[in-house]
Amino acid sequence: QVQLVESGGGLVQAGGSLRLSCAASGTIFSINVMGWYRQAPGKQRELVAAITKGGSTNYADSVKGRFTISRDNAKNTVYLQMNSLKPEDTAVYYCKVSTGVMNYWGKGTLVTVSS
Known about the structure:
The protein is an all-beta fold.
């Protein structure tokens, strides 16, 4: 069983920054991809950014140049540095961890960006 604990969400003004963290614990054999998704009210969940064990990254077009994903493999932790936040970034942000066999999701952390 794998548990994911997210932190770092909150309320911020447009143009501000937040840093999300997601720590994985439990019976973990090999984590391949770690990523962040978000779901705004009335919208489908979408990929924000993902990073492989080797460090390759993938970003949604809407966040390129503003968000940076990173990970600490020794700590099984993934981070999302969010800069120049916009009101349209308001959503619940979910951490996802993939082992190649199973996918695990966090419970989500709310990010609210005021205009």
